[in-house]
Design goal:
Blueprint: E1 19-20, H1 26-36, E2 39-46, E3 49-56, E4 58-59, E5 65-71, H2 75-82, E6 85-91, E7 105-115, H3 118-131, H4 136-140, E8 144-158, E9 162-166
Parallel strand pairs: 1-9
Antiparallel strand pairs: 2-3, 2-6, 4-5, 5-8, 6-7, 7-8, 8-9
Length: 168
């Protein structure tokens, strides 16, 4: 799955400003961030247009996979069916409204796979149910589909402008 999410940057972008695995605590910072938030913005694309959707997510202990469900009769499902490349954005801005330098954000890039049945399906639904018990009815609905994001990399932003990359 390497190189499926290599970013394309403008000419003035300086890739030296992205630190790769420079911070030994980066994985812990990412885990703290995504554990502390219940929702993220799933970024998809279709017909050469980007699209963002709010999702409730759960993730595996090794931070290599995220799970979410969506209604089948939605634009989100259609776009995911057409293009598996996604980004999930999670941030802590609601917790730090008075101090932007305390806000952290992660952009998680990867591939979204539709999981229809079996052990992996049950694992994903169980993770979601444990993390979001208030949407149990939604998780069980036949009109919904489960997706697993296979993570390629994390881009973590802290202190408003420090960007680091972590590959699990």
């Amino acid at each position: 799955m390497n190189n499926i999410d290599e970013p394309i940057f403008e000419a003035e972008f300086n890739p030296d400003k992205i630190r790769s695995d420079a911070n030994p605590d980066l994985a812990a910072q990412i885990r703290q961030l995504i554990s502390g938030q219940s929702f993220g913005i799933l970024c998809t694309q279709g017909q050469r247009q980007p699209y963002g959707s709010l999702i409730a997510y759960a993730f595996t202990e090794d931070l290599k996979h995220f799970f979410f469900k969506t209604q089948i009769a939605t634009r989100k499902f259609k776009l995911l069916s057409e293009c598996q490349r996604v980004a999930l954005v999670v941030d802590s801005r609601c917790q730090h409204r008075e101090d932007l330098t305390s806000v952290a954000a992660a952009t998680i890039t990867g591939k979204a796979i539709h999981i229809e049945t079996g052990e992996e399906y049950q694992k994903g639904v169980n993770l979601l149910r444990n993390r979001h018990p208030y949407i149990a009815h939604f998780l069980e609905a036949e009109s919904t589909a489960l997706f697993r994001i296979d993570v390629v990399r994390y881009f973590h932003v802290g202190r408003f402008q420090e960007v680091s990359q972590w590959i699990p």
